[in-house]
């Protein structure tokens, strides 16, 4: 470049060079998948540029729909050759903005890889490809019998309709069944990965020739865990085998709603204590301190209705599901619950008529609510999201003894920083209360959830949401809670606190992905992370 | 609970859907049957265009994103061939809206309609393939370039009772066969069955014959509201001139257009034939006594089901036919898979989308164990029937009236 030549010329040159690279990469990718399954048309790219999280918008340069592990492998090798970043999408529904192509590049949309490959009743495992929504895997598994009349199901059906099983496992999805049956990581039997350098790697027993989906650890040191919660930084998962559990065989099941005698007083420390006692004695199927705002937002048809419903409810409602093989077993457990409520003195069971009225307010039957508590059908959270559109969710595992302190700090942050300037309803309706879910694998911990609803079309509100979100993350981490699912900013804030383990993760990234092409910037693993 | 906004209800300009587009969570429920109703992986998809092309842009959420990008300041997209393809491969079946509106109160189908109307205003729509149909409707009152005089030829079949000319004689019920049943030789039996059944029930009815004018649905669905209004005005005058108190049609498309788009401008009450037959059966004016030994399943036409909420009447009728063994497919009622023909798709993308979608529906019908796929829309019958004739499903496609006529 001669002296005095405007700098823009270099940028234009770079732009043209970049376009040439994109065109050549696209041509090569189309050779792999065919012209119908790869494109650089802006109308197609645009839809992959944003999600509902606070992650800034950016388009990929190419979108490709591979149909097999081998096609993924060839695409990754092309990306490697051109040093082009690769991001991966299955259902596209996640809380961390993981598929937003923060550095542009190739978007591998895995919708064509949609087969349930095997449901093995003997080893009680399911093997499937990336684009298998939880709802359908659940239904297909549920048709199988492990034992006579006892159905099979995957363990963790959160975001039942929207999320795919594989991505939910990889990002640490949680729900009631997960709380009971062990976390995702504990249920993975095998995975097939295409590494950033284009190798195919199989983890677990199926890596050994002629060994089927046997649910045992290893063989050898189990390094499979490094792929979980890594947001695609170590490759693209194309196949997964998970353990299945028997469908709850209890013929008798009932929800009991418990609330403080003083209905309008919220006492988190007493709720925590009740949780602890019920958890310790290990007789409840499910335990949930619901968020009234959450429930009201599901049921209401106007913002005013939200407030009216909240006003009509006790401040705290704990859902306790009890189950038994027969009426007698259920009655014994109920008697035990009654004794514990008596001992506490401050909690009573909601009368049957009031409970029916409450479920009617929610527009659900008792059976539907129970199904929701165990299956977590997505429609509930989806309906909550309709008020503002976007929402950010965070879930931390926390010791029960910290609940009261965290609630207090949560409220302080929300009141100070979360103001909704142009919401068409009451400003308070833009946040939810907290929700406790447990028992967390029978231990003295629960999952504490915060939800924030905001309007993504309002830049001011997005900024505010991002601010509150960061404040809450920091507060939780400083208070000794641990993030149990990857959500926006959680890894960025949490990983640097991991010390030597963080350094090891960064080294692994360098070894496995020296060019840094695999989902860059989805977590702080590279030196040039901003 | 949900706002329950049906497709094509109060369509506004593109900007109306801008805020909705921002509210789309990309939860993906518009891709599939409501998760609470999913029964198997094989039959869990819901969007024909999305399932066919798989890129996100082709699903309901993608249409929302198109709205967002086009209404951004400055716009993030320009109208293009790809955008035309995305907009016009949608059958406007309303399935995405059925799930999304139930869960999130959004209106992705209506956003798709607004996109079409926007494309037409900007000179990018309708597609060249649609133009001959539109011109034919404007010039000949039917989309098939057929002469007006041929419109009532179907009624001249031997053995068919003579039908009154409602343009000359006063009738209680005006039967409006619509263009497909009037002109298409494969579908004309639908019109003849209506005549037989109304005759058997002693209904005082007539047709407009060569005076009948297309309802204009085709023009409306491709987004050309301005030219649709010309047809609507002309047809409203024609229909009102008859003085009939009831307008009866056996076409789901005509029914939803007359009922929803003409609405209060019509002086008569509009019925679909299944509603009317159900009433005749209940009043004892029709009786089905002959056995019809078939394993039958029912395909919900989008314009009858999702557009107008008519799900029970056809099932009631089928349930009353002696000998019929009724089996439901997995995707039914609000969550029914579209036959693939609607929204101008059969005209512009006959093989790529329409026949492809129809074949899947036939396979689903076969999976139900049925040997006969029954529908209540000539256009669905045409598309499904054509796919059945060219495929190996072994399923026979018939209009519900054929079974009723057989049983009476």
Beta-strand percent range of chain A: 15-25%
| DSSP, total strands of chain A | 19
Query: Major sheet of chain A: size, sense and barrel closure?
Result: 8 strands, antiparallel
Q: How many domains of chain B, as an integer?
A: 3
Task: Give me the CATH superfamily of the largest domain in chain A.
Answer: FAD-linked oxidases, C-terminal domain
Task: Give the low-pLDDT segments of chain B.
Answer: none
Which CATH-level-2 architecture of the largest domain in chain A? 3-Layer(aba) Sandwich
Assign the structural class of chain A, choosing from mainly alpha, mainly beta, alpha/beta, alpha+beta, or little secondary structure. Answer: alpha+beta
Strand order of the largest sheet of chain B: 1-3-2-4-5
Describe the overall structure.
The complex is a heterodimer of chains A (530) and B (408). Chain A has 530 residues and is an alpha+beta fold. Chain A folds into three domains: 17-109, Uridine Diphospho-n-acetylenolpyruvylglucosamine Reductase, domain 2, CATH 3.30.43; 116-246, Uridine Diphospho-n-acetylenolpyruvylglucosamine Reductase, domain 3 (2-Layer Sandwich), CATH 3.30.465; 252-490, Vanillyl-alcohol Oxidase, Chain A, domain 3. Helices cover 38% and strands 19% of the residues of chain A. Chain A has 18 helices and 19 strands. Chain A has helices at 8-33, 42-46, 69-82, 134-142, 165-170, 176-181, 184-187, 268-281, 292-299, 303-312, 327-344, 352-362, 366-375, 379-385, 403-417, 459-478, 490-494, 500-512; strands at 38-39, 62-64, 86-89, 106-109, 116-120, 125-128, 145-147, 150-154, 188-194, 200-203, 236-246, 252-260, 286-289, 318-324, 347-349, 390-399, 435-438, 445-454, 482-483. An eight-stranded antiparallel sheet of chain A has the order 15-12-14-13-17-18-16-19. In chain A, strands 5, 6, 7, 8, 9, 10 and 11 form a seven-stranded antiparallel sheet that branches. The longest helix of chain A has 26 residues, at 8-33. Chain A starts with 7 loop residues before the first helix and ends in an 18-residue tail after the last helix. Residues 1-6 and 420-430 of chain A have low confidence and may be disordered. With 408 residues, chain B is an alpha/beta fold. Chain B has three domains: 14-121, Fumarate Reductase Iron-sulfur Protein, Chain B, domain 2 (Orthogonal Bundle); 131-281, Rossmann fold (3-Layer(aba) Sandwich); 288-407, 3-Layer(aba) Sandwich (Rossmann fold). Helix content of chain B is 44%, strand content 8%. Chain B has 18 helices and nine strands. Chain B has helices spanning 18-23, 48-53, 60-70, 81-88, 95-104, 108-121, 131-140, 178-183, 188-200, 217-221, 225-241, 252-262, 273-282, 312-320, 345-348, 350-367, 378-389, 400-407, and strands at residues 164-165, 173-175, 205-207, 246-249, 269-272, 294-298, 324-326, 372-375, 396-399. Chain B has a five-stranded parallel sheet with strand order 1-3-2-4-5. Chain B has a four-stranded parallel sheet with strand order 7-6-8-9, sandwiched between helices. The radius of gyration of chain B is 21 Å and the shape is globular. The N and C termini of chain B lie far apart (42 Å). The mean pLDDT of chain B is 94. The chains are: A alpha+beta (530), B alpha/beta (408). At the A-B interface, helix 2, helix 4 and helix 14 of A face helix 1, helix 3, helix 4 and helix 5 of B.
